[in-house]
Amino acid sequence: MKNLKLFVIPITLVLCMFACTPKEKNDQKAPLAKVTVSGNAGNFIRIKGRGFSTNKLENTVAFGDVRAVVLDATPQYLLVQVPPHKTGVVPVTVAVGAESSNPMMFEYNNSNVLLAVAIPARR
């Protein structure tokens, strides 16, 4: 039994040392995927988040440097209409008072199709 312990303990220690050895560093990192929502001016977008004001006038949504119209607001969602803008990708930010969100990217399509969505009234 003593001989078995003398054999097992050193083997266990060696295995632990190799298990804790750092792996080779890979200098190449995978590029971060950028999520971009796309649409046209006049489309309606529902933005999910938290901390929004229930007073729609206290929420500011900007597509690039163009302010969007906030149609409805709850603490978790904003319904906005995409403002006119030239074709391309712009950052979308939401501000409530002095607090501002991280930007989300929005791509304006070059088609002139206007999509409409029926929103049921809240009770």
UniProtKB/TrEMBL annotation:
Q: Where is the signal peptide?
A: 1-19
- UniProt-listed InterPro entries: Ig-like_fold (IPR013783), Ig_E-set (IPR014756), IPT_dom (IPR002909)
Gene3D superfamilies the UniProt entry points to:
Immunoglobulins
Q: What are the IPT/TIG domain coordinates in residue numbering?
A: 38-108
What keywords are annotated for this sequence in UniProt?
A: Signal
Report what the protein is called. Answer: IPT/TIG domain-containing protein
Organism phylogeny: Bacteria, Pseudomonadati, Bacteroidota, Chitinophagia, Chitinophagales
